[in-house]
Design brief:
Layout: E1 9-11, E2 18-20, E3 27-29, E4 33-38, E5 44-50, H1 51-68, H2 84-90, H3 93-97, E6 103-107, E7 114-119, H4 120-129, H5 133-146
Antiparallel strand pairs: 1-5, 2-3, 4-5, 6-7
């Protein structure tokens, strides 16, 4: 069984005609999902969000950026409190993936409401938790249990 919380990428085989969008929960043809990358076997990997939902999210972020403006040079993550040099030092990922910035405008996909400017690592965690406080509490308890 695929874990819905941590299935960030999924591979779609040509014979699998349908895929379910994690935002709108509609089953759509795999061509309705943007191509993301290739896996080790050379198969295409697609985003878990359909193109229509991605377009809505992109428009939401565009509007937020217009309202909020540019991120200041000395910004710290609204979630973890780390600054850009610290994040870059701890996560070499950004040098490998060539991301333009470590920052993301976090927002509620359902309402479009701006939540904060957070770093990519925090955005991954928040996204995988799907803003589920109960699940977040379980993760905290798991970490505490294993480090006591």
């Amino acid at each position: 069984m695929v874990n819905p919380y941590f299935d960030e990428l999924s591979t779609v085989q040509i014979d699998d005609e349908l895929k379910t969008c994690r935002r709108c929960n509609e089953s759509k043809h795999y061509t309705d999902f943007a191509h993301r990358s290739y896996n080790k076997n050379g198969d295409k990997e697609y985003k878990n969000y359909c193109k229509a939902c991605d377009k809505i999210a992109a428009k939401q972020v565009f509007n937020i950026k217009k309202q909020i403006g540019a991120i200041p040079d000395n910004h710290v993550c609204d979630c973890c409190g780390r600054d850009e040099p610290t994040i870059l030092e701890q996560y070499k990922l950004f040098q490998r993936t060539m991301k333009k910035t470590v920052w993301t405008y976090d927002h509620d996909y359902k309402t479009g409401k701006f939540k904060g400017i957070i770093c990519q690592p925090c955005n991954s965690v928040v996204g995988n938790l799907q803003d589920d406080i109960t699940l977040a509490d379980k993760v905290v308890k798991y970490i505490q249990r294993n480090y006591e």
